[in-house]
Design goal:
Blueprint: H1 4-16, H2 19-26, H3 30-44, H4 60-69, H5 72-87, E1 92-98, H6 100-107, H7 111-117, E2 121-127, E3 141-144, E4 154-167, H8 169-172, E5 181-183, H9 192-201, E6 206-209, H10 213-221, E7 226-230, H11 231-234, E8 241-242, E9 251-258, H12 260-263, H13 266-280
Parallel strand pairs: 1-2, 1-3, 5-6, 5-7
Antiparallel strand pairs: 3-9, 4-7, 4-8, 4-9
Helix pairs in contact: 1-2, 1-3, 2-3
Length: about 290
């Protein structure tokens, strides 16, 4: 295996074309450059330069190696950038947009763990069904149940949100034909879970609608009607139980999205790792 330092000495010699010029740049004796070159040639089994009295022109193999080494400055710069980022303290504010059910039931209960690991880090959680505009700075990271189409975004599928139909114990004893339903208002009819509810209720009535999931959940707890909830919410509510249905409930992929430049921030990366860990630790969100 060759010595990387020998390779660096060769790269300087290849650029300067003489031992003395390379030695001046490297601030060493020219004999040291010669020894480094000899060691590299021996390690590689190649003759890299022609040893002329006043110069060291590259051989064909030397020119080929030098072309490969042309990427070294860029590599060096990237390594230095990585080192600088790694040394930056993880602190500051990171804004996270997420579906309300995920924010309330999966992320918020584990924020204390993140704070314990990074006391200087402050997370602003933005529960919303709307897609936060990352390009306008509405959030730094977004968890979405719709695949992001923006080419500039880094996107990663990290889980799946499953749904089921729920009612309280008294409601589950009613004849199926007498069931009533709780739903989003009409503005959310485009959601797969809302479309599924309309499909399974058929002619039966929606007797209560709300724009937020928690209001729907509370209405179902009181027996107003059956409600479609993410299983992370419904299965963890002791006042509710799953109701039998004759069609497969929807499942929605969960996407983690961020802009590439922000992803390189240590604070943003720490929060991204936290979000992925929260999802992976929740069995009902596994793919």
């Amino acid at each position: 295996m060759f010595d990387w330092q020998d390779l660096y000495f060769f790269s300087v010699l290849a650029r300067t074309q003489s031992l003395s010029a390379a030695a001046r740049e490297l601030q060493v004796e020219h004999a040291t450059v010669g020894r480094r070159l000899d060691a590299l040639e021996k390690a590689l089994g190649l003759r890299l330069v022609d040893r002329l009295p006043r110069s060291r022109p590259l051989t064909e193999d030397g020119r080929a190696l030098n072309r490969i080494l042309s990427a070294m400055p860029k590599m060096s710069s990237e390594i230095q950038q990585l080192s600088r980022l790694a040394s930056i303290e993880i602190a500051g504010t990171v804004r996270v947009s997420a579906p309300p059910s995920l924010a309330i039931h999966t992320l918020a209960p584990r924020i204390a763990e993140l704070r314990k690991q990074h006391p200087g880090l402050n997370v602003v959680l933005l529960p919303s069904l709307s897609m936060a505009a990352l390009d306008k700075g509405e959030a730094d990271i977004a968890l979405r149940t719709v695949r992001p189409e923006e080419d500039a975004l880094v996107r990663r599928k990290i889980g799946v949100v499953h749904f089921a139909l729920y009612g309280n114990t008294e409601f589950s004893g009613r004849p199926v034909e007498q069931w009533t339903f709780v739903a989003y208002d009409d503005s959310r009819d485009h959601l797969p879970q809302q479309a599924w509810l309309h499909q399974i209720r058929r002619h039966r009535c929606v007797v209560f609608a709300a724009s937020d999931l928690m209001s729907q959940q509370m209405a179902a707890r009181s027996g107003v009607g059956a409600v479609v909830l993410p299983t992370t919410v419904g299965d963890n509510d002791p006042a509710l139980q799953r109701l039998p249905v004759d069609s497969e409930p929807p499942a929605r992929d969960l996407w983690l999205t961020v802009y590439p430049d922000l992803r390189r921030s240590p604070s943003v990366k720490a929060v991204m790792d936290f979000l992925v860990d929260c999802v992976e630790r929740e069995p009902r969100l596994r793919r």
